[in-house]
């Protein structure tokens, strides 16, 4: 279970602190509040809170993140405490996440941690962010830092923290249970960055492998139809889109002559080809904000009967999105001309899917996909609208 430390100083903003604590605990994240001194801490509007402990007892290795609530004079009180300065630097040196909201990003700046970073704060404090690049946005993610603007952005900020610590699905589940508007989703999703990244990655892969040209988009179209039939939420459809369009990204690390070999592969060559899900995982896991789609990429060649690769997962042990991609990927492969065989007719490919129900593929999802084939024209689209 992730664990978060929240220091509280006299004059903290109670709405920010309580919102963050509430949302994180709803997501199953352990939260420890720590006063600068023993005893109750009084907020800006004179609400007294008894912290769980004091910061003198806080050990960096026990926590995954530290979050500074804003408010005044709370933020200035945090800023003037040398123990907070040391704690922040120790968290940063340990590679832990750091968050701050409202006026509190000035504390990160005073510690010299925001130089060259993108960050936000309450607008009146933007000039005190030192060498940071100020962004007028409710929530800003940059590396290990998450910053936010004020009391009104505490909820999207807290959900962004949940996404980083427990995954997008956990954040979405909490938001749904709290009846949070879908409009909040945009605050935790950098649209331009992701759209540019995805288009660049897919374009580069298509330059390497001629078979891949159009394949990723067709697979994605099939997957999104299945996802729509399953009534997945917009956020889950977006994750499915990402996993589908990047499912073969690991082929960057596969030799060209193997990808385009005319004739069947020998055992060594087949082993090398089978490494592409793992290579794709290693490629994606280092890209901030894409780590949650790793299971889709890693497991899209698992089989329902447990004889697939790389982990021999079976049945519903296989992540749902990976099961969806597996069907769409296989179907499009059957319809495509390959270096070692001609394309199959659509009817033959559908028969193959039906024959492999319960063996290679999730039987229920095959039926859903066949409904899609009977109903949708599958014209290739510009998928940027998913961002």
UniProtKB/TrEMBL annotation:
This is HD domain-containing protein. It comes from Oryzomonas sagensis. Signal peptide: none annotated. Residues 212-334 form the HD domain. Residues 190-385 form the HD-GYP domain. NCBIfam families: not_thiJ. SMART domains: HDc.
């Amino acid at each position: 279970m992730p664990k978060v430390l929240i220091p509280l100083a006299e004059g903290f903003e109670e709405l920010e602190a309580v919102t963050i604590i509430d949302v994180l605990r709803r997501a199953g994240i352990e939260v420890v509040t720590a006063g600068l001194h023993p005893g109750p801490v009084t907020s800006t509007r004179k609400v007294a809170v008894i912290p769980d402990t004091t910061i003198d007892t806080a050990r960096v290795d026990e926590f995954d993140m530290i979050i500074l609530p804003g408010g005044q004079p709370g933020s200035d009180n945090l800023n003037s405490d040398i123990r907070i300065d040391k704690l922040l630097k120790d968290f940063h040196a340990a590679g832990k996440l750091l968050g701050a909201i409202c006026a509190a990003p000035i504390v990160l700046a005073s510690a010299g941690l925001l130089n060259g970073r993108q960050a936000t704060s309450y607008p009146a404090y933007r000039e005190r962010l030192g060498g940071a690049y100020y962004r007028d946005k409710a929530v800003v993610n940059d590396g290990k830092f998450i910053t936010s603007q004020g009391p009104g952005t505490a909820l999207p900020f807290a959900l962004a923290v949940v996404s980083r610590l427990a995954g997008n699905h956990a954040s979405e589940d909490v938001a749904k249970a709290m009846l949070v508007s879908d409009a909040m989703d945009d605050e935790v999703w950098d649209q331009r960055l992701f759209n540019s990244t995805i288009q660049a990655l897919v374009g580069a892969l298509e330059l390497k492998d001629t078979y891949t040209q159009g394949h990723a988009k067709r697979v994605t179209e099939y997957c999104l139809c299945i996802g729509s039939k399953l009534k997945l939420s917009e956020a889950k459809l977006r994750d499915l889109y990402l996993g589908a369009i990047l499912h073969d990204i690991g082929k960057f690390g596969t030799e060209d002559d193997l990808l385009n070999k005319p004739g069947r592969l020998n055992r060594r060559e087949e082993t090398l080809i089978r490494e592409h899900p793992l290579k794709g995982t290693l490629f994606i896991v280092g890209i901030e904000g894409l780590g949650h789609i790793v299971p889709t990429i890693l497991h899209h060649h698992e089989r329902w009967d447990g004889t697939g690769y790389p982990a021999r997962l079976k049945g519903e042990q296989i992540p749902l999105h990976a099961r969806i991609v597996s069907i769409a990927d296989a179907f499009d492969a059957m319809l495509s001309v390959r270096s070692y065989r001609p394309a199959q007719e659509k009817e033959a490919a559908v028969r193959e899917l039906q024959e492999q129900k319960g063996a290679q593929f999730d039987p229920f999802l095959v039926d859903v996909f066949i409904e899609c084939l009977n109903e949708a024209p599958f014209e290739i689209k510009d998928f940027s609208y998913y961002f």
